[in-house]
Amino acid sequence: MLRLSTVVLCNLLILIFTINFTYGASVMSIDLGSEWMKIAVVSPGVPMEIVLNKESKRKTPSVISFRDNTRVFGEDAQTLGVRFPANSFAYLLDLIGKTIDNPMVELYRKRFPYYDIVEDADRRTIVFKSGDETYSIEELIAQMLQKAKEFAQDSTGQPISECVIIVPGYFGQAERAALFSAGRLANLKILQLINDYTAVGLNYGIFRRKEINETAQYFIFYDMGASKTTASVISYQLIKDKTTLEKLPVVEVLGVGYDRTLGGLEMQIRLRDYLGKKFNEMKKTKTDVFTNPRAMAKLFKEAGRLKNVLSANTEHHAQIEGLLDEQDFRLMVTRDEFEKLCSDLFDRVAVPLEKALSASGLALENINQVILFGGGTRVPKVQEVLKNLIQQDLGKNLNADEAACMGAVYRAADLTTGFKVKKVLIKDAVLFPLEVVFEREGDSGKKRRVRRTLFNHMNTYPQKKVITFNKNVDDFTFDVNYAELDFLYNKDEIQRLGSLNLTKIKLTEVAKKFEIVKENCESKGIKVHFALDDSGILNLANVELVVEKTVTKEDEDENESTLSKLGNTITNLFGGGSSDKDKDKEKENEETDESKKESESENSSSEQQATNDTKTVNETSSGDNEAAKNKTEKPKIVTIKEKIPSDVTVVYVTPLDGDAFDKSVDKLKALEKSEAEIVRKQTALNALESFVIDASTKIDEDEYKECATSEEVENIKKACNEVSEWLYEDGIDADAQTYENKLNELQTLTNEVYAKHWEHNERPEALKALKSMINGSEMFYNSAKNLTKDQNPEKDVFKQTEIDNLEKVIKETKQWRDTEIEEQNKLSKNEPVRLTVKAITDKMALLDREVKYLVNKLKSWKPKVKPTPPPKPEKDNKTQENETKTDEQQNTEETIEVQEEKPDANENNDDNQSEQVDDDSDNILPTKPLDADQVAENHSEL
């Protein structure tokens, strides 16, 4: 059993590590703005980078259009939207998570009157009608997320399934939940929804990490985008992490101010309406330009171009060809006129910054710098207002378009398992406070509503909170709502937030759970645990009844469950086991820690409870002295937790789930299938048209005509003419399969002619390669035949049969080549080919195999090792006496010793003879021992 468990555990660990390395390859961030979409990726070996779209641009318009079952995105959708504005959807982010009665929906209708917006009867959200089809906001945004995923995968060449999405900081619970639904529809795992200013602050911090120290530094990031404006106060500071004891940089959001309707879009709308009014005043047509959707779309596009130009120029001409009833429009517009149109908007520019400072509790003197980002900050008047307010230069050292996207992709790399990044802690801030509301019976018997704050304005998150209910002993219900919103600008902004009531939570089986509160038990109440995650979404984590029970050691022994025993066994198995004394101490420590945690949680809630009633007493160990044994053992207090079932009902907006979600999935799959079929049809049509033109041209050329019979030429021409006429008449509406079948028929007719042409064209090169191989093989043969035992005993690399076999293959190949060339030359080009390129390459492969066999044998050959001569005998006494010879006698003996080395000299003579043989063989082999690598290299070059 132990062996089986170990094997299973090992297999599980291997699976986990495989998943981490396999699916953590690439990750992306998506800045899904109202006007533009930016994507950044991190992949192995590639640093953080912005993804280019199909037009090789770094940002893509957030537009999707439908026309004749065709779906297009980006610039193509913008172009189509000018002609068919009602079928082109943009600026959708302001509508996600909104019900039909939200003021933002009414503002959207006013800005774009040509859209047909209706209510979803089941969810009370809005849907766009386009012909017979309807599209929810989640479905449209999901399709944009799919396109972003496609761009990212094309850029990295790897599948991507995880992302971080940037959202406006003022998004509430409804908007954030709806974005998660859109991510599920797009088959994307959203690691986190990160606020735009938090992403920018992170990006600013990671590239200035060395400048962050123990002293807090404060910056204001001012962002004016297409549809909104935000200002955020962010601090940077090094703080020691309690777990790792390492000093880490912390990016903390201290204050936020925003205006969700102030941005470049509103300025563009003002310009559009101004240009339309001027065109009507020219009275070029009796038709009111504001009643024509196509003309309004043209005016909107020109207003956007004009706004951008006036940021760099003091005046510019607005001009549109064929605006309405084929009438052109041209008007000079100055920057002063533009600023006058938007004067009330510029009065609101400073408000978000002031609100952010007020929320942070800091003065402007404490701020290091005000840094701009967002396309709207390029408007000169916006910069002028801000500069007059802060009385210092504005920071412009951030990429206004890409800063948020780059910060978010760094966060994505940190969250995924495939990358390791330098840790940066993030502390975001709660923009809209949250509270729990429930009813309690008062002293008079009447029920009263009680409010308990969960998260205050500007509380940091992610964070967990606990609410304790002490007096409820039966099933009850409570609500989670937005709390006091007095800090918001006006009542309109509160209405734009949507429903203030978020969820209704019902607890069941409460009375049943209280049955465990018997003798020696004390209830500590029902504890409801909430978690505000790093995406800013509030979740109900757990609901439990907490009871403290006084038990003796005898009770513990009797009531020890089978499950506890099994748990102890597993702990001993993998943890090495511990003594009873150690176990008791560990258990006491765990209970003490739990008591501390409960105390902290209760202090953080509005209904604080004293935890000093619970006393933990150390047990007497078995090794104590007799006096300690005689002491009375005090009772032990244990904490019992019983989970209470809960039912959460979302009130703010019905989420896209269940059957509605499945229907949306089917709709998107049908769109993808239809789109794939359209692509297939277009590809097949293009391929057929190209082939017809190509075949018609080639069959008239002499080099192809020579390879075909007159009948084949006639059939090909006839077939091409018939297909060409069919394409421009009945075949214009054919499906992809029909085009593919027509192409296959033409290819069947032309394949044989094209094959003959190819054979005659490629044969000379193939014969040239064969000749080169034969020459090389002959040169190798001339060298190798001298490396047999008969020719060179000292270098007997090959057997004579191997050399003879190579000679035979060379002769047979030459003979085959000459015969086949002669026979092929007797045939005309339009007759079946006798000497094919494949036959030539087969012969080359046979010859090459024979030579390579000998080359490999040559590489592995080693010269024979000479036997070591026996050692000389030791000198005896007589020999030592004879060593008293004269110097001349010694010289004579030395000469004799030299003469005794003649066997070596003879070997040198043999080598000289070998050199002579080598000279007779055209110097192919070297005079020194053969270098196998050099011979093999020479053969390869040949």
UniProtKB/TrEMBL annotation:
Compositional bias segments (type: Basic and acidic residues): 579-600, 872-888
Polar residues composition bias: residue spans: 561-572, 608-624
Pfam families: HSP70
Single GO term (MF): ATP binding
Composition bias, Acidic residues: 907-922
InterPro entries (alphabetical): ATPase_NBD, Heat_shock_70_CS, HSP70_C_sf, HSP70_peptide-bd_sf, Hsp_70_fam
Main location: endoplasmic reticulum
Region feature Disordered, mapped onto this chain: 552-633, 862-942
A single GO BP: endoplasmic reticulum unfolded protein response
Domain of life, source organism: Eukaryota
The entry's keywords: ATP-binding, Chaperone, Endoplasmic reticulum, Nucleotide-binding, Signal
Secretion signal, residue range per the UniProt entry: 1-24
Subcellular location: Endoplasmic reticulum lumen
GO CC field: endoplasmic reticulum chaperone complex; endoplasmic reticulum lumen
Family, similarity comment: Belongs to the heat shock protein 70 family.
Protein name: Hypoxia up-regulated protein 1
Source organism: Corethrella appendiculata
Lineage of origin: Eukaryota, Metazoa, Ecdysozoa, Arthropoda, Hexapoda
